[in-house]
Each structure stands twice: as C-alpha cells, then as structure tokens.
Fold each of these.
Amino acid sequence: MTGEIELPALDGTNPLGFLAALGVLDVLHRAGLPATLRWTDDLVPVALLGGAAGPDALIALLDADRERWTGSAALAGPPGSRLDDAKPQPAVLRHWAAAVLDGDRAGADLFAALVSEGAVDGNGNGKPTHLHFTAGQQKFLVMARQLAARVTGDRLAEALFGPWREDSPLPSLSWSSQGERVYALRAFNPSTDKRLGVPGADWLALLGLVFFPTCVDTRRDGELVLRTSGCDRAWKHSALRWPLWTVPLDRDTTWSLVGDSSVVGERRTVTPAVLAARGVLRILQAPIRRSDQGGYGSFGGASVLVEGT
C-alpha cells in the first residue's frame, strides 16, 4: 500500500510494541487523519502505518499530542484529590469519573481503560485494569504523568524506528515481554534492580490501552468483578490476547477486531478460515504473572493460539 511508514521497532509479538502501535493509530485518528495500521507477515512482524505525512511529521504530531495530556484529569484525578494510583476509594472514583467526563472524549476513553466503577479489591479500593503491573512504591498515575511530562521527540523516534536502547531512567510500565526479570535465572533477586526502559514506547502503549477497556461483570454469587478486554478474568494468573492482521484497518475497525470476544475472548470461537478471510495472520497470547509480594506484574513470552489459514 502506498503512503505507508514502516515502524520497525514495534514488534507485534511483544505486548509493548503492539500496544504502542495502537497508541500511534489512536493519536492520528484523533488528529483527523485517515490513519490505518497493519502488520508485516514476517518472522518478526512489525507495524505498517498509513495516513501519516512522513516520519518527521509523525514524531512532531505524537509529541504535540503528548503535551496535551499533561493536564488531563484522566492522569491526575479529580480536582483537589490528586491521585497517585488508579485504585481510589469508590467515592473518590466517582468524583474522578465526573471530572474526566467534563473533559474530552480522549480522556474518557483512557479512563475507561484504567478502571471501572463498581469493582473493588480486597481493601475496598477501585480495581484497576488487568494491565496495571505496578505496586509498592511504583504508582501507576505518577509514572504516567512523568512520561507525559518528560518523554521527548527523540524518545518517540527511538520507540518507532529503533533501536531500543533501554537506557532511560524514566518510568517503565513493565509491558515488554523482553523485560521480564526471572529470579530463577539470576544469581540474585532482581526485584531491587533499577528498571531501564524505552519511555517513548511506554507512553504510546499507555495511549494504546484505550483499545482494551474495562467493565464490571457479576459473578454467580453476585459479587462484582472487573473485566478487561482481551484478558482472562483471573487476576493472579491471567493472560492478554491480541490479533495481528495484514490488511490496513482504521482505528474503529481495529478497535472492533481487538475487542472481538470471538477472537480474543477466553472462549474463542473463531476458526482459522474465518481469520484468514478477515486478513488476520494469527492470535497471540502472553501470560500475565504477578509476584506474591505486592502484585508486581509482568508478561511472559507470547505464543501463537491460532493461525489464519
């Protein structure tokens, strides 16, 4: 397809690369551009972006969009109650939701991907998305605000075009399956390591969460539980599933595909032939693992669930 830009650093088999590509697509869509996204059919599938004028213009657009988020209620919380994490008490959560809904659609979409009213954890606080991997001294919203304030155009270019240097002390949201720190393979406990990352990719992946909204579901016993699109319902041992496709899809069509329960649900029903007819290469799954101490999360390596034929 003419007019496409290859984003060679966004590996579709890595959750961080996939989420970052979705974030780029969402930014271009909100800018009113006829943006599309697809993936190469290679051993390492990478993103192909349509609708951007060129690499320099793309980076400038992404950087300008980043700046608009620095005052967003979706990342700050309600007026007078600045939040550090996406796990507030229900009363604060209601005020947070009201503040976000008084703003623009982009903030509302991101808020819906972070938390839903009604579901609470064991302490009675709001339950965040299954893709909330921070705990302890790592506060999700603090980290998101730091990324919004300090990511630069150079870091965005690194995220899209590589190579990923993984040398930045800016916050890492732990979504790269390449960054899993496994104690069994180390001579010492890696939990005290300072995680260095690719902040441009983390920032774009944060925006990509809008394709994986949360909702509240009711169990048979009447308890309200959080559901995150594309994820298993369980919290301690969950998984994220996502498709890769070869036909250019706009933002709304991508949203529909990525959230299609027949494709990414726990009980998938789609057949390989149907996937192929829809231009889908394969469905991938990465396990979500959480530590016993504090609930720090990480992704394991992705595996192929279904191949389109």
Amino acid sequence: MRAIDVSDFGMITPPRDRGPAPELRWLPIEQLVIDEGYQRRITEQGRKNVRRIAEAFSWAFFAPVIVSPIEGGRYAIIDGQHRTTAAALIGVKEVPCALVIADAQRQAAAFRAINANVTRLLKTQLYHAKLAAGDETARTAQAMCEAGGVVIPRTPSNWAEKLTHCIAVQAIERMARNHYRAGVLTLKALRAASIASEVTCLRAPAIDALFDVLVDAPQWREDENALIAAVADLPIDEMLADAKAAATRVKGASARDRLAAALVDAFGRAFQKAA
C-alpha cells in the first residue's frame, strides 16, 4: 500500500476557477438523457461493452455517473452512458451521480476532458489486476510463467530483463486456457532461445506458433531437455522475420502459421539427427 505522494511533481499553476463542487445524488435513470451534440452513439463494440458490464454488474465496479441538470427536471450525462445503459439493462432504476453545474458548452468541454485525459492501462497492468482479483486464467498463466522462468512485468523492462520478460499477455492466457504443459514448455524453450541469441523471442507470433506445434505433436514434448536445446539452437528471431515477410506475399497467410511450419521442419531435422 502507498499513500498519494505529490512531492516530486514540482511547482504547478493551479486554476483560478475550479467551478462549483459536485453534489452526489442517486438519480432515476429515466431522468438521465444523452446530448447528441457532443455525446457519441453506442457503437456495435459499445453494445458488446454494455452487455459485458451488465452480465458482470457489481456496485463495486460502478463509478458515479457525471451529470448536469438541464431543463424539464432532467440531467444530461457527461460521462457514464455505457454503464448507465448496462444498469438499465438489468433493471436498475437509480444510479449514483456526481451532479455538476455546467451549460451545454461546458458539458461538452467536460466530456472531452474526461475522455481525453485517461491514463490507458497496459495489457500487462490489466493482467496483474486480474491476477490480484483471483481470475482463474490469470492464476493459471502466472503459475505457467513461474514454471517457465518467464515474467510478465508490471512496468517496462530494461534490456537485460527483456530476455526473460514477456508482454504477450493474450498469447500466454490462450495457452493457460488450453494446455498447461505445452504452455510451460513453450515459455521455457523461447526463454532459452532469447538468452542464447541475446534477442527476445518471447513474442506473440513465436509463442503462438511453438505452442500450436507442441499441442499438435505431443511426441516433441516427451524429451523436454532435447526440445529446449533444439529451440535454443534456432534463430527464432530471423525465422519470425522470414515468416512475417512470407505471410505478406500470400493472401490469408499469417506469420504464426508460417513460423509453425518452419518449426515443424526444423524439429524434424533436429530430432532425426538425434536419433
């Protein structure tokens, strides 16, 4: 735990006018409206987000809606259209609101400021939040990473750390959902390849390709040490670059599939020699 600390921000010039302090109220959803002069319509992706919010609705996840009073006893939503719609979808009648006094121009400025001044979360930061929340896939992924000697960093890594750090969260979570042992072996092998080549090989296309190969060909998982050594001997970074180039020349091809095919050929040669 840490306290709010502004000691290292330096001097700033505070605004002369902070505006009226907001008032917190529970307001009926039927009194909340959307000013389409500045508010966006709910897109198809937005509708998916609304459904996701509704299906996992919890007041612990519900930030107060920012509204401003307008004529007719109604309130214009400045921020919170999607979560208010989600609440209405499951039958909620009232939502907590922060009521601010602003004309239409000031409302639009507030909408712009709220949506523009958002600190975007990295996928790695979202992963650690899911892990702290006890998400099953994140917990499996974390165990898999620990077994594979790989770290999903909270913050950007330095050069030395990048060889064993991985930010391809979606690729790792995919492995965690589908095949734990193949996932561990994938991470171990690509970690070894990174250290051997001094170039990070823990990238999403490489992870996906090697994982697919190991799931489809379980015989190559039998001798873990031999597989790790075989992958460490391969120029994974160059193979990935070649796969990306080849994929651009063929409609519908992907770097992942091209690299997987190259890995199958390389393993065939390596294990034939070993035999």
Amino acid sequence: MPGYERALRLALLLLLISAQSAQWARAAPVSEAVGSSADGLDRERVLKLSEAAIGRTVDDFPLTRSDGRKLRLAGYRGKPLLVSFVYTGCFQACPVATKYLAQAIRKAQSTLGTNAFHVLTIGFNQPFDTPAAMGAFARQFGVDLPDWEFASADENTIAAMTQELGFTWIATPKGFDHITQATLIGPDATVYRQIYGEAFDLPLLVTPMKELLTGNQTPYTGVSGFLEKVRLFCTVYDPGSGSYRLNYSLFLEIAIGLSVLGSIMWVLIRERRRARRLPQA
C-alpha cells in the first residue's frame, strides 16, 4: 500500500502543478505591495528582505489576544498559519487589505475546510495597538471568522517578529508607510510564501495552502486524511466565478492512472512469480 500511495501522491502533485501554473503567471507585480512616501521606501530592498524570510523558522513569540488572553506562536504549529500586520490608526491601506483578506479567507475556508488553517493579524504600532485596539479594529471592519485572531505584543517582540517575517515599515507625517503582505507559515513553523498587495488573485493564497495541506507537513492522517488530500487535489480554481470547484474529470484521470498502475504491478508480480518457478521446472 505505501508504494501505491507514493505513486498516487506523485501523480496528483503533477496534476496540481499543471492545473495551477497558469494562475501563478497571472500574479500582480509584487512591487505594488510596497507603498510610497515623501522619504520613500526602497522597493527593491523591501521586497528582497521580504523574500529572504522564506524558508526561515519562526521563533515562539509571546502575544496577547484582543480579549486579553495570552498566547504563544508555537501554539499554532501543526496547521498552516497566515500572518498579517496592521496599525489600528490607519484609514486606508490596512482597512482595505484586511477587508479583502477577510473575503479571501472566507473563500479559502469554504474550499479547504473551516479549521484547515489559522489566521493571525498583529498590530505593529506600539504602544498604541493594544489588545483592546486590535479587537475594536476587527469589529469595525466586520472580521469575525473561525480561527482568526487579532493580537498585540510589546515593542521588542514586534521588532523581532517583523524582522523574521520580512515585514518592513517606516514612519511618515501621516502615519506609516509599509509593505502590504500576508506571510504563510507552514505547520513546522517555517515561512513558506509571501502574498502581496491590498488585493490579490485567490489562487495566490489557496494554492500554497493546498501544497502545505497535501504535502509532507499535512495534518491529515489515515484513510480519511488520504481521501481529503485527493479532494483537495481535485479542487480547481474557476476564473469565471472567482471560486473553487471540484473537477470531476480529475477523479476519472486518477482512477485510470490507478488502474494502469495496478495492471503494471500485477504484470510485474506475475512475471516475478513465473521467473521463480522456471528453475524448478
């Protein structure tokens, strides 16, 4: 059985890569995620710092939820975690990005499962982005989704955490100028992908999450977990509706592939048994 499962995983991975490659080609330029100010952010440097975070293991930072309860980042391990940074005094980029992220998260949860991943939004403007301020920010913009926490931390923690996750900002006369990104962290606490912009194509979020959920870091185990992996592989993005749907033709292709693989295995086993009987004859 393990041999069959490995072969199926490889076949499904190839199908997923083929189905999603066109969506990656449509991605918006990441430079649009870097704001501008009178002093100006160095776009090339900011994006370089952001991309350099990919593959980095994130430390176990202490945080405080909007309701005042303490939490640690290590508590999110075992499932993918999406992290975004905002400042509660923002009246433009942060609200727009958070509202759009809520729409994307809602669609991602309907596709991948309500409890398939976690979301964490952190206020970086200390000491003003208190737990209470983060809670008010979430309520103001109507964010009330499962497994999405708004949290706060002290200045030293924010400085260390933003550096590890590749998030850059500078103070301006009107507030802050910062990169707009959401950082996807794998179940093993390693930065897996950066997602840029106040708005983005849904596959830029869902595709890497599917990769994490169906890969070696997957939280799915057993027969039911294996079937869930198959379902995720066969769920594809429909640009016309802007949502995901099951592609039943992939089930047929998988069934044919398994049939061919089974036939090959049967022939190999038969020939091996036949070869063993020949010396006795």
Amino acid sequence: MKFLKNISLKKFSNFRIGGKAKYFFKAKNISEIKKALILAKQLKAKIFVLGGGTNILFNDKGFNGLVLIPEIKFIKKINKNTVRVGAGVKVKDFLNFLVKNELSGFEWTGGLPGTIGGAIRGNAGAFGGEVKDNLVQVKSIEINTLKEKIRNNKECLFDYRSSVFKDKNVNEIILWGDFKFKKGKKEKILKSINEKINYRKERHPIEYPNIGSIFKNVPVENFKKEFIEYFKSKNIIKIDPKPVIPVAFLIAECGLKGKKYGDACISLKHTNFIINLGKAKAKDVKKLINLIQKTIKKRFQINIEKEIIEI
C-alpha cells in the first residue's frame, strides 16, 4: 500500500479552497482503512477523515498528515423496512435507493450534499427532520486501536447537529449505519424530495462554491428576554427541531449581507452562507467568520457556534 503525496485539497472541498495534503488515500473497504491507519501510524502522520467535503474549510497551507477518504459505498436491505448504508454513500444516492424501494422518512434530505457518514456525525437536519429520527445503529472503527464498535441510537448521543463522533475523546471512523423507514408511495416520496430540492435551489447560493451553513442556529432559550420578545415581534423563531433563531437573520440584522474579504463573500441570497466568488482563500473566509461572530456578540450578546469544520 502507498499513499499519494502532495495532493491539492481544493477539488475535494465544495469551497474549492485549500492547500495540499502531505499524504492522501481513498480506502475502498474496511481492510484498506485498517492498513491505511497502520501505515499512518508508522509514518507518525496526523489523520483527517474526509467525507464529501461539503462542510470543510481547509487551510491555505494544506494538511501536514494523511487525508483519508473511506469510500464504503454499499447499500443493502436488512429487512423490509431497514437499510444498511456505507458511510461513503452520497445522500442523494441513498435517497434514490429509498425512492426505488418506496421507503419514506428521509425526504427532508432532498438536495442535501455530502455523505451518509458526515450526516451521521453531525446529526444533519432540515425541515424538522434529523438523522437520529431514523437511525438504528452505527458501526465505527477506533483509529488508534483498530477496534470495531457498534452503537445503538441512544449510545450515539445525538444532539443538535452533533453526536458522540464529534467528541474529541472519541477518535473513530464511521463505517456504516442502519436506518429504519416506513413504507410509502413512490410518487408522494418523490414529490416531497423535489419540494426540498427546489427550496434549496431558490434560497441557497448553490451556484457558487460554498460549504453550507457556517454557523449553527441558536436556541431561543440562549437569548436574553428582551431579544426573545423582539424575535417574536419579527416572527422569525424557527423549529429546527427545537425553537431556534436562524443565524442568517442575525447576520442580516447586523448589516453584514454582501460583506467581502478578497473573493470570500457573505451571500446576499442566504447570509449564513459564505461563497467563493472565484479565488477566495481560507484566510478571507476566516476573517468573515470572525467579523460575524464579533458583530453578533456585540449586537445580541450571544456567542454563535460554527457548524463547519476548519482544518
């Protein structure tokens, strides 16, 4: 086994931003993942596990270690309503499988980029739905010991855009997940999926390189009473799935819509998106992120949390 060397990360990020990875490897199965981990250990290389690259901001200097992509791409039915899907399967491909098999419950992911592994790790959610609503169990592998582990839904410790796999003390790679659905009618499932896709096309700046929502929406309970009353008067409290204030609203309220550093720009279409107008650098994006955080802190007396991953 050999790793590729000095591979540009730009083409592996939706942002089209990033330097080079010292080592790079795509693993086609669990055996190759284990071999890659062993070799990385021998090389004393840091490891970053990459999925679809749809929420990653790579550093301009690149990554001085191994970028490992687990391309576990199988999909199979366990029983009539339960499906096992590899972490490397794209969400859209999984949806196509569900439509074909008339399984309902994942329609909210229509238009969602990225892989199933990434969706599990971040407990992806939209339109009131979340990964945890359908997930039965997850299999992962511990990076240091190579031990494989299966967790049920409860053991995954799902929370708002989070799971046990985001814990710094849990150094694991997601291999596959089992999901349970309900039988549905193909036409109805497709209609619901297309509604979500069209919504994203209309409201998200997908015509530009981006990595989705930069910040997590903020639970209403985190704000002071005076601000909660203001939000109620504006009728912008969103259920996602608990009551939250969209960060896009906060950014717009702070007058930051369209703000630019270099070719990095706060989207006019959706202010919780930063877009790459062509030649944006990670340093430009980070300047905008810092500006947004500081301005919102001053205006609303609240700290907002990033949803993206910075490497």
